[in-house]
Amino acid sequence: MSDTGLDPEEARAPLHDEDDRMDPGFVGGVLARLDEGDAEGARALVEPLHPADIADLFELVPQDRRAGLAAAISDRLDADVFAEMNEWVRDELIDVLAPHEVAEIAAQLDTDDAVAIIEEMDDEDQRAVLRALEPDDRAAIEEALSYPEESAGRLMQRDLIAVPEHWTVGDVLDYLRRNADLTTDFWEIYVVDSRHHPVGTCKLSWVLRTPRGVAIADVMQREQTLIPVDMDQEEVALRFQKYALISAAVVDGSGRLVGMITVDDVVHIIQEEAGEDVLLLSGAGEGDINEPVLDSYRARVRWLLANLLTALVASTIISLFEGTIARMVALATLMPIVAGVGGNAGTQTMAVTVRAIATNQLTASNTWRSITREIRVALLNGVTVAAVIGIGVALVFTSPALGGVIAAAMMTNIFIAGLAGVLVPVALDRAGADPAVASSVFVTMTTDSMGFLAFLGLATAAGLAG
Amino acid sequence: MSDTGLDPEEARAPLHDEDDRMDPGFVGGVLARLDEGDAEGARALVEPLHPADIADLFELVPQDRRAGLAAAISDRLDADVFAEMNEWVRDELIDVLAPHEVAEIAAQLDTDDAVAIIEEMDDEDQRAVLRALEPDDRAAIEEALSYPEESAGRLMQRDLIAVPEHWTVGDVLDYLRRNADLTTDFWEIYVVDSRHHPVGTCKLSWVLRTPRGVAIADVMQREQTLIPVDMDQEEVALRFQKYALISAAVVDGSGRLVGMITVDDVVHIIQEEAGEDVLLLSGAGEGDINEPVLDSYRARVRWLLANLLTALVASTIISLFEGTIARMVALATLMPIVAGVGGNAGTQTMAVTVRAIATNQLTASNTWRSITREIRVALLNGVTVAAVIGIGVALVFTSPALGGVIAAAMMTNIFIAGLAGVLVPVALDRAGADPAVASSVFVTMTTDSMGFLAFLGLATAAGLAG
Fold first, then answer.
1. CB-CB contact of B296 with B285 (8 Å)
2. How far is A121 from chain B (nearest CA, A)?
């Protein structure tokens, strides 16, 4: 939690353009100072920036300038900046720092942010950093690292306010004022029983609006969303979103309160999980523009090779009709239209289905309804597109038969595309796979193959190339 | 803000499956009660649910059962449930309610939630609901409706805590305890000057941890992110995310504090905005599984027809080579491979670029770097895929020349795909268009056309079909 500095209109004007993106003139200005060896000038420009903006600046300057920038503004390169930085850029900077420097940064961070930095390091560096930490910090981070990656345990912070249920509001206020070493940033107070099991939560606004003498148990809300410590972070994010949570208590297997997760740590997960479907469906892996070229290559080439295989299936189907094509080359000209538009129709349905599954909107209760819904949309789309292409081809080729064949093939393929667009992701999900990862390959293979088969098959059956 | 009820393990077991989706057995149980005319039994099942779960239940039962369910559980069908409900399902339920019933629900809601319901109604119904509201509620909602759709003004609530800068912490505490009609749910206090301009914010945890005698101006943070009332909600969401905000003050054109936005109202926008790219890129419009069939049809058929046009361009290019194909039909068999894999490569780059633009990671400062990065990835991908297909085709067709031609064409098309995948979204963004909306059409057209042109052109030039 922190803020941008000054009035948005005044202070942001030189720094951000109208789309809220960092102004290239500003970035260029910092780089120019560094070019001139004017580290002091660069530092002065960066000085007033919010940590999130300094993190952006590092992402925006060329890779070979980042170490130089870091050296020039080292005193502003603190834990808050690292917490906000793109992970690829951060890992690269961390690589050039000594373990004790990383430990210094990690010690200033909330556990969850420190873990995010340390978990990406290789084992040897990780041990070196942990050795350089104070025992308390080390224990907290080691405990966090003992939970599975992307689990609530990695995401939570251990600093929280927990009070016994027999206290009054006055007791809580006195406790908060008198204990200087308590955390200063929290949004809710957790009320626990003698076994340290959460029994309720209390928003701070309720504490503030209640007289001192009232029992905290009468102010708190008993119903609360408890997060099991091993819950996957995607599930945590969905729960925060669904129940509009600001913070939530994390409990271990025996129900003891072990930490809390706050919404600001979840927001970037919500954004990433929602945004990753488009990357996964296209086979672009993590798809970050700061990812090293070789990593991007490895992530993407796999899917291109998979796509090559499915294209070979379609190619084989075409080869079955070589005789027909040889007699009527126009078929080769038209066949990609049927496959292409069918592919697009399949992608539309698939995108809708994958999103609905990811947001828990599509469940066993409404799968059948979604299938019939997509069939109806596909029929309407199919009739429209088939009519347009059928009439067009009939006129251009002065062949009503060819127009009829392409219309029927288009109708068939859009219908099949609609079915595949729902059934493939649903089947992958039921099989326990992430539907965003592999749906595209199967849907595209279906629409390509069926497009060529329907068009060339119907053309052959109709004796068009007779 | 509210919570789920009881311990997650115990209470959720019958209601949610392991993926946190509502159990079909529970949904079926409610419907079975309704079938038997046992409205009381259905109500008893629904009674303990969180409003967000009741909203889910409405989405999961078939459309023709929703009015019946609403009638059976009318006392639990309150404003909180409507606020959580999918907008299509909500609009459908709102349609069957009388204006005074809608007004009753709207009056209980925060302004932003009430506006979300009312803004979707047609003008006549909207006027009827507004007439049925109390003057205060009406004025607040009418003011909100005066701001542009999807702006901060529609998103903000007017109930907030603002205090003068000369107050002490004790003054603030007394004010909060003594004024029963103040809002009870808030996370930060805004400190304003005599012109009602915000001068700082104060987290409640800071108020709670400070002695009564300290001036609030000494506790507050002066730097804060102010949201202009006409800012687009997507921009608001990005700012909440970037600066990890829990709430933010909204100011009008003259800098006066007019409302506040809290993170729970922004979280679903972050999720929607991040998730919509995959829908927009596929041409699936809003792509909600609850959207009426005709709306989905209208949204999607436009893009299918646009795709038909681009397919015609590719088709025209093929027709230029009819002579070549007639002499060597194998070319028709192989050409979709070049176009298809190129299309996939283009889609990968496009997905990465569109996400980077949407998250403000790709700016004028690093566009050129992104282009060269994608070119390098494309060269690596191109060499790999071209080698595989080239060698394969050379062996299968016992024609090194044909293998060479398809390898060169594949290399060329993947390179062009990489370029188009960056340049098309960047150009659309610079032109002020949403790159997610129209990029696909242009990228696909490029990879299809160039794939056919490169392969058939090289084959012709090489005299393969000679």
1. yes
2. 24
